[in-house]
Design brief:
This protein is α/β, with parallel strands linked by helices and about 450 residues long. The protein folds into 2 domains: about 160 residues, Alpha-Beta Complex (Aspartate Aminotransferase, domain 1), CATH 3.90.1150.10; about 260 residues, Type I PLP-dependent aspartate aminotransferase-like (Major domain) (Aspartate Aminotransferase, domain 2, 3-Layer(aba) Sandwich). The protein is about 40% helix and about 15% strand. It is built from 15 helices and 16 strands. A 7-stranded mixed β-sheet has the order 4-10-9-8-7-5-6, sandwiched between helices. Helix 14 crosses helix 15.
């Protein structure tokens, strides 16, 4: 007797037949509807969302004020191109970004469609502002999959046979304290890493040719690794000394995820340029480059942007998202959610040596799995089992990291206490099951 396929299985089979294999399948869940922190799959089954569309729905799936703003704008005009016809939603959003993400005395912004586009344009702006070509980036970095962004991205599996890559890009080791500190304390580790940074001016690249350093204050795809406070302060000083623009990529860590509009606000270290996308538009494709006005204005007219820069539909969605986030104090909610997660997961870590680390800022939480309690021995086998088991039991979650040995939690920040506790219970159960299986 042939077993009848579920609607989800049918959908996945159709995907396999019609969609290019290179488009990743990070989870086998499907969706027919979504609201708040809940996804309804093609078979009508409820799933708790701990992935958030890869950190895109901090304000929840389909927040009502955002949906209403989209509907209203859709009845007015869909596209004119901001290059051709100026419109209010673009300008209003840039004003709002300058208010919540101030860069120095005067801040300006530009809008594009994706995080990768934001990074590409940030690099162009930095090069034009400094008249220099070279860019410094970091191991473990993820900045997107367009050509410059892919060059800056560290993970090799995203780059197979895609070269040659953009020239004049140089990579430094990210100061990943958990993985590489060995017997050193934080201060000693950071001092050593800052020494390495300064030595790069002698053994990596002519420092006089460096336009910018780009860094994620909390790495996303790299495994939610937070840069140490003292290192970021030292990096800011290094850039100031050498006339280098400091770019901070906040695409995954921005818009309330860490308890601030941007994670750099935790550090009190201000970038010259920063990039945003994902939760900025509650799921609509919009991104921004924000920076000091004199730097942003260094780009020649027509050298940045594109046809779809700041779609009016996406702009109103982003403005409505920002307003909604303020009204419900989503930054405070992120801190509360993060505490609940950290308390439960750190308790679980104390019971299992296979969990090497639980870390994060606000509600940007990661669980790293290792062998023999050793940070230098990543366990790459365990995460796929946990992700699969969670999906089968009503929870959507994603892995991360160079070795795919890290689980990352990016639940919508509007998740209810009951949903959060249930999701964590499913996750704990699947972690224990996977640990005992391997």
């Amino acid at each position: 007797m042939i077993k009848e396929l579920t609607k989800s299985q049918e959908l996945l089979n159709r995907r396999k037949e019609a969609v290019a294999n290179g488009v990743g399948v990070f989870n086998t869940a499907t969706v027919s509807e979504a609201k708040g922190a809940i996804i309804i799959d093609a078979d009508g089954r409820e799933l708790i969302d701990f992935a958030g569309g890869i950190g895109v729905v901090n304000a929840g799936h389909c927040p009502e004020p955002v949906v209403a703003a989209i509907r209203e704008q859709a009845g007015k005009y869909l596209h004119t191109s901001f290059n051709v016809v100026t419109y209010e939603p673009y300008i209003q959003l840039c004003e709002e970004l300058a208010e919540i993400l101030p860069h120095g005395e005067k801040t300006k912004a530009m809008l594009v469609s994706t995080g990768a586009e934001a990074v590409e344009n940030a690099i162009k702006i930095a090069r034009q502002a400094t008249k220099k070509p070279a860019i410094l980036c970091f191991t473990g970095a993820y900045h997107g999959r367009t050509m410059m962004a892919m060059t800056l991205t560290s993970k090799v599996s995203y780059k197979y046979d895609c070269g040659p890559f953009a020239p004049e890009v140089y990579r430094l080791p990210f100061p990943n304290f958990y993985r590489y500190h060995g017997a050193r304390d934080m201060d000693t580790f950071v001092d050593d890493e800052l020494k390495r940074l300064h030595e790069s001016a002698l053994n990596l690249v002519d420092i006089k040719s460096v336009a910018a350093v780009i860094i994620e204050p909390i790495q996303g795809e790299g495994g939610f690794n937070p840069v140490p406070q003292k290192y970021l302060e030292g990096l800011r000083a290094f850039c100031d000394t050498h006339g280098i623009i400091l770019i901070m990529d906040e695409v995954q860590s921005g818009f309330c995820r860490t308890g601030h509009w941007a994670s750099w606000q935790h550090y009190g270290v201000q970038p010259d340029i920063s990039t945003y996308a994902k939760s900025m538009g509650s799921g609509l494709p919009i991104a921004a480059v924000v920076g000091r006005a004199e730097i942003m204005d260094a780009a020649a007219i027509g050298s940045i942007g594109g046809t779809y820069i700041g779609s009016p539909i996406c702009c109103v969605a982003a403005s409505a998202t920002i307003k909604y986030m303020k009204e419900i104090n989503l930054n405070e909610k992120a801190v509360q959610i993060g505490k609940v997660m950290m308390d439960r997961l750190q308790h679980l870590m104390g019971q299992h040596s296979e969990i090497g680390d639980v870390r994060g800022v606000g509600a940007m939480i990661a669980i790293e799995f290792v062998r023999n309690g050793d940070a230098t021995q990543p366990n790459s086998e365990i995460c796929p089992q946990i992700v699969k088991g969670c999906a089968e039991n009503g929870l959507v979650i994603l892995s991360a990291g160079t070795h795919k040995n890290i689980l990352r939690i990016l639940s919508p920040l509007v998740i209810t206490d009951k949903q959060l506790e249930k999701g964590l219970s499913i996750l704990e159960s699947q972690i224990k099951k996977a640990i005992h299986t391997i």
